[in-house]
Every structure is written in C-alpha cells, then in structure tokens.
Amino acid sequence: MLKKTRLSSELEGAFNHRKLKPAEADKLRAIAENYQQRQKVRWSTNEIQLYHYYFGFLTSLKAKAVAEELAQFSYLSAGANYEIVDVGAGTLGGSLGILDAAPELGFSVDRILAIDPQEEALRWAKETHPESFQNKRKRIQVQSMVYPPHEMEDRHRIVLFANVLTEVFDLDPTSSKVHPLVAWAEKAFAQTSGKTLFVFIEPADFDFNQVFLKWRDRWSKQIRVLLPCPHQKACPALQQNEWCHEEREYEAPSSFWNMIRDLGYRKRNLSFSYLVLGKRPPLATAQNARVVSSDVSGKGLCERWLCADGKRWKQSQLLRNKTDANAAFFDSSRGDMINLGILENLDTPRGAQ
Questions:
Q1: Are β-strands 141-145 and 224-227 bridged in parallel, bridged antiparallel, or unpaired?
Q2: I need a labelling partner for 147 at 20 to 30 A (CA). Which of 178, 216, 259, 344 fits?
Q3: CA nearest 112: which of 181, 52, 162?
Q4: How many helices (H) and strands (E) does the chain have?
Q5: Taking the domain 288-342, which CATH number applies?
Q6: Which residues lie below 8 Å from residue 253, measured CB to CB, with a gap of 6+?
Q7: What are the distances in angstroms from CA 191 to CA 115, 188, 204, 224?
Q8: Distance (Å, rounded) from C-alpha 326 to C-alpha 329?
Q9: Calpha distance 36→114 (Å, rounded)
Q10: Sign (positive/negative) of CA torsion 205, 206, 207, 212?
C-alpha cells in the first residue's frame, strides 16, 4: 500500500517557507494562473523564488513519491550510483526530491545533469540549496546545459521530465512532428540500456491528461511501460474518454500550510500524472491490477475502478465477503496494485469494458 510522502526535515527547512507579503501572494497566484493556462513567463529572481517555494516544493514531493514506488517495485538498483538527467530542470525541484529519497531507498546520486535554457533559475537553485548537493564523500556534480547530449555512457540513470510536456501541449502525439526534446527522448529510448529509467511527471487536469495518455500509447510501441500501468496495451482510460492520474497524501510543515492559506488554496493531496519507461522487463503481470479511482463504494458494496491487461472496469464486492485473503482489495486506494487472484467472480467483472 502507498504511504504518505514527506520530504526530510533538512529539505523542508531548505525551502524556507514563510509568511508571504500581500504583494507576493498576489504575484504567486498570478504565476499559478499563468502556469495553469500554460503561458510562458519571463522570470525575475523574485518570481523564481516564489515559484520554487510553491511549485518546486510540490514537484520535489511528487518526484520522491515516484522514486518510492520505483523502489517498491524493485526498479531501482540498491547500492548503485545514479546520474539524474533533469530535463527542463527549472529550480531543480524534481532532482531535490530524488536526492531526498536516495538514502532512504538505498541508492546514491553522484551527478546531476540539469537541462534548461533558464540558467538563472538553475544558478539560483544551486546557490539556495548547496547542502542538498553534498554527500559524505564528495560534492555531487551539478552541470547545467541548455540541451542534453546526444550520446550518454551506459550507467544507472534517471532521466527526469517534470512539467515539461505541458510546454508542447499543442503538438499532436500521433503526429510525426514533435518538439526537439521529445525527439531527443525518443532517440534515447532506442540507444539506452536497461539501466536507464525515463520518468515523466505532469499535471493531472483532464485536458492535458488526455494528451499525456496519447504520449503513453505512442511510447509503449517504442519502449516498455514500467509504471504506473500494469500492462503494455493501449490505455483503456483514453478509449473511454476518462483520465488516469494520481492522488497521493503528503505531509508538509506548518509553514507551508500557512503559505497555502495566505494564497487562499486548499492543497491537501498531490495530484499528478506520471509515467516510467525503461528497457527492463516489467514486473507487473496479467494478474496485477492497478486501482485507478478513489473509493466509489455503494451501500453494502466495496467498489473500485481497476485497470489490468488493457481493460478498465468497476469491480464490486459485497462488504460481507471481506476476508484476510482478499482484504487488500477492500483496503486499497488509488494507485495501489493488487493481485486479481484474491477476488471472486472475475470472469464477468461488473462494468467491464
């Protein structure tokens, strides 16, 4: 079962959440609105700082949550040194989340290759979080580049795209014309080994999620889908005009919640879409199903929307049928993976499509 995500106290403190001045709260709300409308912003140092305290913090939490699930499914090699290639790195929120997860999950990071034309944002992040890029033996190398290299040596690597595909939202994933960064990623899919993981983290809103699922279907023909999907077939949510996203619980310091109240927001869950691709064999089988809804139970029933083997359906079980053997279904929440063998009457699942 998925646990609540929380950054270490050291990283929480480094974000230095504080009470916003009224003008700062107004500016951050404007940044958030522009972000939601996918409008490009010319960043000042103050805007970079405000963006980082809100979006950077949440991106760190999302990246750490994905890293925790990668470890849960044994997709991370214990004891290995990883390189992070952070594409569209911004203020390095995604890299910070993975760095924060590393000691807890038993791997290390010895290099970050930060890719972003906004070099001022990268420079500000490195100056603001210098201790985050240290380990006991040596300083982690953070190299800034405008564009990723065409060739990369064979090693353990996480290629992270956090809030990047939103910038190519208007391009059709079914078209042969793609953004240069997407073209680079697709070339890298073919060239890299099983040691490399490609991690995409994007917003959860319905319109973009539909586009994101189309990217997922496109890429499933080029490389294996490792998470969150338990199968390699076409996405059934896309076929049903539904969305598929994460809702994760998280913990944050009181200073962050005070800032949220200053903004007039209610941000109790992490909502995001994500995708992990790689060349290693997927661990999920046809007997694995992912819970892709919140609790939709009716009177006397436990009901969950499940996704498995290219199908998405609402599975129902009477509450009186709960046993120790099938409790994982009754106790599950969005994002959990369960074994279909624990359920009865699976030949004709209710609502199957």
A1: unpaired
A2: 216
A3: 162
A4: 11, 12
A5: 2.40.50
A6: 12, 13, 17
A7: 19, 5, 30, 14
A8: 6
A9: 24
A10: positive
Looking at the chain, the domain(s) classified CATH 3.40.50.150 span 9-278
Select from 3.40.50.300, 3.40.50.970, 3.40.50.150, 3.30.450.20 the CATH code of 9-278.
3.40.50.150
Tokens found for residue 110: 């010895």
**In which residue ranges of the chain is CATH 2.40.50 found?**
288-342
Angle at 301 between CA 296 and CA 302, to 5 degrees: 55
The answer to whether the beta carbons of residues 201 and 97 sit under 8 Å apart is no
Burial 255-279 (b: 16+ CB within 10 A, else e): bbeebbebbeeeeeebebbbbbbbb
Are 316 and 305 a contacting pair, CB within 8 Å?
A: no
